[in-house]
Specification:
The protein is of the alpha/beta class. The protein contains 16 helices and 24 strands. Strands 1, 2, 3, 4, 5, 6 and 19 form a seven-stranded mixed β-sheet that branches. Strands 8-15-9-10-11 form a five-stranded parallel β-sheet. The N terminus is likely disordered. The structure holds flavin-adenine dinucleotide. The site of flavin-adenine dinucleotide has 36 residues, from strand 2, helix 4, helix 5, strand 4 and helix 11. Flavin-adenine dinucleotide binds next to strand 2, helix 4, helix 5, strand 4 and helix 11.
Length: 512
C-alpha cells in the first residue's frame, strides 16, 4: 500500500467500530502490553502487503478480505498452507461431519418412511463407502471453490510450512524441501488447532480414533465408546448410532453440552437417549485394556467404578493450538496456555503481526475464526476493528439440533440480572407436526428491567436456522417487545421462538 493513499471507509466498516468485548472470553486482554513497533521498511520493499499463515476458515477468509482491500489500495496478498485449503473445518471438521450427519439422517428417514405413509419395497440398507465418497466429493468441490476465490482475488496460494523469522519475513519450506523467504508488511497467523489423544492409561493403538479418523472412517464399528459429550462427541454419536453402532457417550461434567443452558442439555439428552445412545454424565475413563479385539474401559462415575466394553473408542475431546515451530518464541510473540495472546483488534504484541481463529484459543468455531480474519485483514489496511463476542452462535448438529447464543439462565443469574424467561415446545406447532418432527424446547432469556434479550437456547428441528433471529436480536440489542411484536410466518418452526418471546412477555398464546 502506498503511504500517500487514504483509506475510504465503507459505511459497513464505520458502523462496526464496537468496543463491546466480553471480558470472560478475552481473559488476557488487560495483560497485553502495548504493541511494540515492529522494525518496518517502507511498504514498497516488501514482496507482499499481507501474508496469511494457514488457510482454514480464519486464514482463507482473511486472505480474501485482504485481497479485496489490496485491489483498492495496492499490494499483493499471499496465503501459506501446508496441507489443504479450508483447514480443519473443511477437511476434517465442520463440513465432512455434516455430510456424515446428513447421510445418516437420510438413512433414518428412509427406515422410518412408513411413519408418513411412504412405502419402501425391499430391504433398506446403506453403502458406507459410497456415503464416504460423497463426503469426499463435497470436500474437494468446496476446496476447489476456495482455490477459485483465491484466483479471483489474485491471492497467491503458497504450498508449504511457514515459520516467522522476523516480524516481516516468513520462511516457507515446501514438500520437496525447497525454501523461500517471503517478506510482508503485515502477517496474519491462522495456524488453527489439531486433535490430540487424551492420555488415558492403556488407551493407544488399534481402533482408537480422534475426530480426524472418524471423518475418514473406513467402516461402521459394531459398538463404540465416545469420550466427550460436547459438539464433536455428540455429532459422531448421532452418526454412528443412526448407522447401527451401539454407542455410549461419556461426559465428565454433570450435563452433556456443558457450556449450554441446563434445560436444553436435559432435553438433548432425553432426545438422544430415545434414539438408543447411552449417555453417562459425571463419568470419566480411568484406564483401558485391549482384550480379544475389544476395548475394555474402566469408568469412574459418582456411583462407583464400572467396566464398559466396545470395539472402538472415539476421543471426542482434546484439541491443541498449532503454535509450536512457527517462530513465536524467537520473535517474543506472547502466548498463554490456550494459544497466542491478542488484543480485541486481533493484534499480537508485535504491531504488524495478527493472530486469529483456533490458534488464539478463544472460541474454537469456524464462524468466529472467519470474522476475526475479516477484522484482522481490515486492521492491516489501517482500520480499527474490534471483535464483539456478545452474540456468538454455537450449534451442535445432532438430530435434533442443539443451538445457543448469549447467556444461559445460570450465567445471567450469576451476573446479577433479574430475568424474564420464556419457554415453548416446538413439537406442538402445526408445522412441526406436518413434517413429523416432535419434541424439543425453545428457551429465551431477557433482562426484566429493560427487556434486553440476553440469551436464546434451542433443542429441536432446524435449531441452527431458528437461532439466527436471536443472534441478530442480541447483536442489535433488541428488546423482548421488539421480538414479541415481530410477525413470524405461519406455519413455520420460527413460531416457536415467537411463542417463547410471548411467554417471556407474559402472554403466550399457544401454551397450555
Ligand atoms: P484450522 O481450520 O485449523 O486451519 C489452520 C490451517 O493452518 C490448517 O489448514 C493447517 O494445515 C495450516 N497450518 C498450520 N500450521 C501451518 C504452518 N506452519 N504453515 C502452513 N500452514 C499451517 N466449527 C464450527 O463453527 N462449526 C462446526 O460445525 C464445526 N464442526 C467441527 C467438527 C469437528 C469434527 C472438528 C474437529 C471441528 C469442528 N469445528 C466446527 C471447529 C472448526 O473446525 C475450527 O474452529 C476451525 O477450523 C478453526 O479455523 P482456523 O482457521 O482457526 O484453523
Amino acid at each position: 500500500m502506498e503511504s500517500n493513499q487514504t483509506l475510504v471507509r465503507s459505511p459497513m466498516i464505520e458502523g462496526a467500530l464496537t468496543t463491546d468485548v466480553n471480558p470472560i472470553l478475552i481473559g488476557q486482554i488487560d495483560s497485553i502490553a502495548q504493541p511494540e513497533e515492529a522494525t518496518r521498511m517502507s511498504s514498497s520493499s516488501y514482496e507482499f502487503e499481507t501474508i496469511v499463515l494457514g488457510a482454514g476458515p480464519g486464514g482463507y477468509v482473511a486472505a480474501i478480505r485482504a485481497g479485496q482491500l489490496s485491489a483498492e489500495m495496492g499490494g499483493k496478498v499471499g496465503c501459506i498452507e501446508k496441507e489443504f485449503l479450508g483447514g480443519t473445518c473443511l477437511n476434517w471438521g465442520c463440513i465432512p461431519s455434516k455430510v456424515m450427519i446428513a447421510n445418516a439422517e437420510r438413512y433414518q428417514h428412509v427406515l422410518h418412511a412408513k411413519d408418513m405413509g411412504v412405502q419402501v419395497n425391499g430391504d433398506v440398507g446403506y453403502d458406507f463407502a459410497a456415503m464416504q465418497a460423497r463426503k469426499e466429493k463435497v470436500v474437494t468441490t468446496l476446496r476447489g471453490g476456495i482455490a477459485n476465490l483465491f484466483k479471483k482475488h489474485k491471492i497467491e496460494h503458497i504450498g508449504g510450512t511457514g515459520k516467522l523469522v522476523d516480524p516481516n519475513t516468513i520462511e516457507v519450506i515446501d514438500d520437496k524441501g525447497g525454501k523461500r523467504a517471503i517478506t510482508a508488511k503485515n502477517i496474519i497467523i491462522a495456524t488453527g488447532s489439531r486433535a490430540i489423544k487424551l492420555p488415558i492409561p492403556g488407551l493407544d493403538g488399534e481402533n482408537v480414533w480422534t475426530s480426524d479418523d472418524a471423518v475418514n472412517a473406513p467402516f461402521v464399528p459394531k459398538s463404540m465408546i465416545i469420550i466427550g459429550g460436547g459438539a464433536v462427541g455428540l455429532e459422531f454419536a448421532y452418526v454412528f448410532n443412526a448407522m447401527g453402532s451401539k454407542v455410549v457417550v461419556l461426559e465428565l461434567m454433570d450435563q452433556i453440552v456443558p457450556t449450554m443452558d441446563a434445560d436444553i442439555a436435559k432435553e438433548a439428552e432425553r432426545q438422544l437417549s430415545r434414539q438408543g445412545i447411552k449417555i453417562m454424565t459425571g463419568a470419566s475413563a480411568k484406564s483401558a485394556e485391549r482384550v480379544k479385539g475389544q476395548w475394555q474401559l474402566q469408568i469412574e462415575t459418582g456411583k462407583g467404578v464400572e467396566m464398559l466394553e466396545a470395539e472402538l473408542v472415539l476421543l471426542g475431546v482434546g484439541r491443541k493450538p498449532n503454535i509450536e515451530n512457527i517462530g513465536l518464541e524467537e520473535l517474543g510473540i506472547k502466548t498463554h496456555q490456550r494459544g497466542i495472546e491478542v488484543d480485541p483488534f486481533m493484534r499480537t504484541n508485535i504491531a504488524n503481526v495478527f493472530a486469529i481463529g483456533d490458534c488464539t484459543g478463544r472460541i474454537q468455531l469456524a464462524h468466529v475464526a472467519s470474522m476475526e480474519g475479516i477484522f484482522a485483514a481490515e486492521n492491516c489496511y489501517g482500520l480499527s476493528r474490534q471483535m464483539d463476542y456478545k452474540a456468538v452462535p454455537n450449534v451442535v448438529y445432532t438430530v435434533p439440533e442443539i443451538a445457543s447464543v448469549g447467556l444461559t439462565e445460570k450465567e445471567a443469574k450469576e451476573q446479577g440480572y433479574d430475568l424474564r424467561i420464556g419457554k415453548f415446545q416446538p413439537g406442538s406447532l402445526g408445522r412441526a407436526m406436518a413434517v413429523n418432527e416432535r419434541g424439543g424446547i425453545v428457551k429465551v432469556i431477557a433482562d426484566s428491567k429493560y427487556g434486553e434479550i440476553l440469551g436464546a437456547h434451542i433443542c429441536g428441528p432446524h435449531a441452527s436456522d431458528l437461532l439466527q433471529e436471536a443472534v441478530l436480536a442480541i447483536k442489535l440489542e433488541a428488546t423482548l417487545d421488539d421480538l414479541a411484536e415481530t410477525i413470524h410466518p405461519h406455519p413455520t418452526l420460527t413460531e416457536a421462538l415467537m411463542e417463547a418471546f410471548h411467554d417471556a412477555a407474559g402472554h403466550c398464546i399457544h401454551k397450555m
